[in-house]
Design brief:
Blueprint: H1 14-24, H2 30-45, H3 50-63, H4 73-114, H5 119-128, E1 136-142, H6 153-166, E2 172-176, E3 179-185, H7 189-202, E4 208-210, E5 214-215, H8 216-237, E6 243-245, H9 251-257, H10 259-270, H11 281-292, H12 297-303, H13 308-322, H14 329-344
Parallel strand pairs: 4-6
Antiparallel strand pairs: 1-3, 1-4, 1-5, 2-3
Length: 355
């Protein structure tokens, strides 16, 4: 805005204050300072720029400058006090507006991710934050060694990188439960891929999960929950991939959906391993490494820091105890599914139960 755009009522009483202070040498009274603060707040709420407002005050000071005085110290001190109080009020209004915006944003995010609020009203509020919930969206979630809040340096660093790369593309970046979260249009997969790269680096190697694109407000919730589930599955299975895609991990929720059936399979298939010397865990680790390497004995042995002969002995021991041969394709699927189930259900840990 230019100086001419600033309404005169934001300068009400300014000239008389200058004249009186210059004549008497007094400082501004408490009421005069409070009135300047109040004008600053109102100017901020009306959307005027602080630079233009200060310029208007300086122009008004030139017009009201006391004539015939030997010293300008008093007048200049008054100008300084007026502008300082006015700017303080302006900044206070700005901080309040920011807090209100942050509160509205946080309330919207909570309502969106928990599936609360009227869907029509939620869609209207979403447009304020650049989202069109009638379209397809996908959600990425990044965890780190520490928890993050929205104003922390790490989220701000990732947000700056996204804006620099993609500009305004209806992207919403925030935090939830200490994790970084990015919501983007479902057809713009490159946005979440770039977010994953930036978040992984900014969180010092934190893992990132990307949910599948889904339609509507409920789709955002579903994609978010898929991303969270992917991070949980990765933790249980020891998956160390920097980026996880829910679409690539669909088999695990399917296997875990019937917990009782999975517990029965684990107990019946792998239960005999508990009779081994040293317990079931070393043999379970052997099966895990063997299947994770595509049943390549040499690579599995290397991962376990064993000789191939020692690994072969363990596989034979597993065959003897369970009756299932890991090298036999007819038995392999059952054993591998049971191993996945054991990792999902924390078998043979204390939390495992068959009932």
């Amino acid at each position: 805005m230019t100086e001419r755009d600033i309404p005169e009522h934001y300068l009400d009483g300014y000239d008389s204050i200058l004249k009186e202070v210059a004549a008497t040498g007094r400082r501004l009274t408490r009421d005069e300072i409070a009135s300047r603060r109040a004008l600053g707040e109102r100017a901020a709420e009306s959307g005027f720029g602080l630079r233009s407002l200060v310029s208007a005050h300086l122009s008004a000071a030139r017009g009201a400058w006391p004539r015939g005085t030997d010293s300008a110290d008093g007048a200049l001190a008054a100008v300084q006090q007026v502008v300082d109080a006015f700017a303080e009020g302006y900044e206070r209004a700005q901080r309040l507006a920011v807090r209100q915006e942050e509160a509205a944003r946080r309330e919207f995010i909570d309502d969106l991710l928990y599936g609360r609020s009227d869907l029509g009203r939620l869609a209207e509020r979403a447009e304020r934050f650049g989202l069109r919930l009638s379209h397809e969206h996908a959600v990425a979630v990044a965890g780190g060694a520490v928890v993050y809040d929205e104003g922390d340096p790490v989220p701000r660093q990732v947000e700056r990188a996204l804006i620099s790369r993609f500009g305004d593309r209806s992207i919403l970046l925030t935090t939830k439960d200490g994790r970084l979260l990015c919501i983007a249009p479902g057809h713009q997969s490159e946005v979440l891929t770039y977010f994953a790269k930036q978040a992984h680096a900014a969180t010092d190697g934190g893992q990132v999960a990307i949910g599948r694109p889904q339609f509507g407000p409920g789709g955002v919730v579903q994609s978010y929950e898929e991303a969270l589930s992917s991070l949980e599955i990765a933790e249980r299975l020891g998956l160390d991939d920097p980026v996880l895609r829910a679409a690539d991990l669909l088999v695990y929720p399917v296997l875990a959906r019937d917990r009782q059936a999975m517990a029965d399979l684990v107990h019946n298939t792998l239960g005999p391993l508990t009779a081994a010397r040293g317990g079931a865990q070393p043999l379970l680790d052997t099966l895990t490494a063997y299947f994770d390497t595509g049943c390549v004995a040499a690579e599995a042995a290397r991962r376990l820091s064993l000789s191939v002969r020692a690994l072969t002995y363990r596989l034979e021991r597993i065959h003897k105890l369970t009756g299932a041969n890991p090298s036999d394709p007819a038995h392999r699927y059952m054993l591998q599914t049971a191993v996945i189930g054991a990792r999902l259900l924390d078998w043979p840990g204390d939390g495992f139960a068959t009932g």
